[in-house]
Amino acid sequence: MFDLIIRDANLPDGRVGIDIGITGDRIAAVDAKIEASAQEEIDATGRLVSPPFVDPHFHMDATLSLGLPRMNRSGTLLEGIALWGELRPTLTREALVERALRYCDLAVSQGLLYIRSHVDTSDPRLVTAEALLEVRDRVAPYIDLQLVAFPQDGYYRSPGAVDALNRALDMGVDIVGGIPHFERTMSDGAASVEALCRIAAERGLPVDMHCDETDDPMSRHIETLAAQTVRFGLQGRVAGSHLTSMHSMDNYYVSKLIPLMAEAEINVIPNPLINIMLQGRHDSYPKRRGLTRVRELMEAGLNVSFGHDCVMDPWYSMGSGDMLEVGHMAIHVAQMAGIEDKRKVFDALTVNSAKTMGLAGYGLEKGCNADLVILQARDPLEALRLKPNRLAVIRRGKVIARTPPRVSELLLEGRPSTVDGSEYAPNIGG
């Protein structure tokens, strides 16, 4: 007897017609046919069942603040930073908590159950850290939330940032962050990378840095981050986020850089929605895309995972909490339209991101946490094409969100009465 059985599921690895048996909060069986009963059964009807989506790069302290104190008229990164600087002194713990909890509600509805959020530590009040530490505790039953101490205005550039970051870590923030390209000089940026990696090594914490989020091909702090990762023995525990300057770098230099990153086992986190929106703003034509070299980094064996970054905040007026929207954009910008390309993109929203975040018990095998999403799509390729409804979201064996199938009523003589977009899947052999 199982507590829950999901019948006739298609899995991301290509297995079809699979039953998943759940006992308590764990997956107890994954077989072609489970000859047993359960207290509850869900018929997936040949639809995709995936582990939950994972967002390894987000700014929950800013989310849903669009329009405060005013709109970003230029739509640029620098105006967004300036707007956030205006808003930050007015932030209250109560408002931050409320917006973050509302976003987490949206995330659950989208099957997004693991999030890593950067927390701006530039305000010495650290109200952002206080608020998101509270949110982390309150959402723990349904979302795993990791927090990064992020000196938004620069570790050395902003007065008091060094002390504030250390205090945030003392309060229980999980990860050391940084923004070397925003320091006043290249040398200050390199020095900040060394100092922050030293802190992480001494405290036994991971590192996740905004790194080279610029079109400047001479912004090369990822090189320093890789070198300091090896120096301090942090291999596999360091993430470089954005890395948009790599889009503009000389190919010969990149041929040296990528192996150095691979040696350091850097986790790479591009943010396709925001990178394509904010980069290349100084170009006329041809206009650079700004997204880092996703295909080349994957081919070199680096762990590449995609982040949502922003939803309705000073930097990005759009967003829906849907990681498939992130993957959909990545396919277009990185020109990853092949069958295997799309599978890699789906992995970058799930298993790769789980690796970046160091998640234990993640996956669809026996013994894994019973965290699952049933999507109104046949397979990962169709999920990325359709961005379908999440028919059921399951956390530790309990259904915590449901969405009805998206089916349109058709009022045309001589034609079918309903249309379900998921039935238009092509026959590509799996």
- Number of E-type strands: 17
CATH superfamily of the largest domain: Metal-dependent hydrolases
* Mean model confidence by pLDDT: 97
- How many distinct folded domains? 2
Bulk shape: globular
Q: What do these coordinates show?
A:
The chain has 13 helices and 17 strands. The chain has helices at 77-87, 93-109, 127-139, 161-171, 186-203, 221-231, 251-263, 272-278, 294-299, 323-333, 339-349, 351-356, 380-386, and strands at residues 2-10, 18-23, 26-31, 38-50, 53-58, 112-120, 144-150, 175-178, 207-211, 238-242, 267-269, 303-304, 372-375, 390-395, 398-402, 408-409, 418-419. The strands form three sheets. Strands 5-6-7-8-9-10-11-12 form an eight-stranded parallel sheet. A seven-stranded mixed sheet has the order 3-2-1-4-13-14-15, with no helix packed on it. It has a two-stranded antiparallel ribbon with strand order 16-17. With 430 residues, it is an alpha/beta fold. The protein folds into two domains: 2-51 and 363-424, Urease, subunit C, domain 1, CATH 2.30.40; 53-356, TIM Barrel (Alpha-Beta Barrel), CATH 3.20.20.140. 33% of the residues lie in helices and 22% in strands.
